[in-house]
């Protein structure tokens, strides 16, 4: 890493909930492989250029840290949920052919074709959630009333778990993603409860399969003779339940807040609803509040740009910073709802890119279409500067998105 730059504290400071860190541009220009100090006090490297982030995320040699790696700790005193510490007894293979085999078995259930088939049901759910919010009156928290509920209903339906357990799922998810929000004892209790819940669910699906993703994975595995083990199915179910609602729920709130922060953006979509798809992609690119970023453990010396990154380094890939790289995006600091092409990296890249990106895109498009159709007068109910970021978790988001209409 460059010796010309001082180590900076990470996460980088921001002014407002929707603002980009002022350090991004400087780091991309002067120190694209920057030394950072994590909340734990450990040190890591931070990548902020699009070219570097894409190259590392696409490199099959490197994956997120595991408990066996001597990786930099994120949380103080080594605390944090299993997604933070990588200390998960039910972890799945993270690289190589075992990982690719697992991806092949799971990814077939998340194709664009399958998402298209789910779209009418998602639309009906989004419409009902908006109607319910309107009946309760405004101001209302869009995140709580729509942003959280739509993804959790969808993923619960896909996995065959009751949506009435959504508050438990939310608590368990937050515990797994906790940096500083929960104590070690609270995290251990939540993880034990979550594992037991999903283990019981998998056992029930083996005895009484239904028309859901986990049942189909069990059935297919039995037919082919090389399906996932119970522990792998439990880990898969837990991972999909967390990723399938937590990040999308946060992104719905952030997307709407970004579009309403400058009301001309909302009006542009009202005038031309065909822009919804590109607007969703641009919201994903423009998001500054993704969270901690993707980590990669460097198991052998590599060269990134002009810098040699030594073996044993933990590297944090800042996709949001890469998505503001002016070498790749014209007017990178402007939100262009018609931007195309839009090679943002919000879902990662290469062999570890997000499995659920087709699902996330569909949900974001569906909820935006529904809001434009049913609430054209939608506005933020508070000044932009009053919006607050989610704190203490590995993922980013807004605590509330107060709206009126």
Q: What is the strand and helix layout of this fold?
A:
Blueprint: E1 8-9, H1 23-30, E2 33-37, E3 43-47, H2 50-58, H3 82-85, H4 96-107, H5 112-136, E4 140-141, H6 142-147, H7 149-159, H8 166-176, H9 184-207, H10 213-224, H11 230-261, H12 263-271, H13 276-286, E5 294-297, E6 302-304, E7 307-309, E8 314-317, H14 319-322, H15 357-374, E9 379-380, E10 402-404
Parallel strand pairs: 1-2, 3-8
Antiparallel strand pairs: 2-3, 4-10, 5-8, 6-7, 9-10
Helix pairs in contact: 5-7, 5-15, 7-11, 8-9, 9-11, 11-15, 13-15
Largest sheet: 5 strands, mixed
Q: What structural class do the secondary elements suggest?
A: alpha+beta
Strand order within the widest sheet? 1-2-3-8-5
How far from one another are the termini?
A: 50 Å
Total helix count? 15
Number of strands: 10
Low-pLDDT residue intervals, each spanning 5 or more residues? none
Mean pLDDT reading: 92
SSE arrangement, N to C: EHEEHHHHEHHHHHHHHEEEEHHEE
Radius of gyration: 21 Å
How would you name the oligomeric state of the polypeptide chains in this document? single chain
Strand proportion: 5-15%
| Helical percentage | 40-55%
Coarse morphology: globular
What would you note in describing this structure?
This protein has helices spanning 23-30, 50-58, 82-85, 96-107, 112-136, 142-147, 149-159, 166-176, 184-207, 213-224, 230-261, 263-271, 276-286, 319-322, 357-374; strands at residues 8-9, 33-37, 43-47, 140-141, 294-297, 302-304, 307-309, 314-317, 379-380, 402-404. With 405 residues, it is α+β, with helices and mostly antiparallel strands. It has a five-stranded mixed β-sheet. The protein contains 15 helices and ten strands.
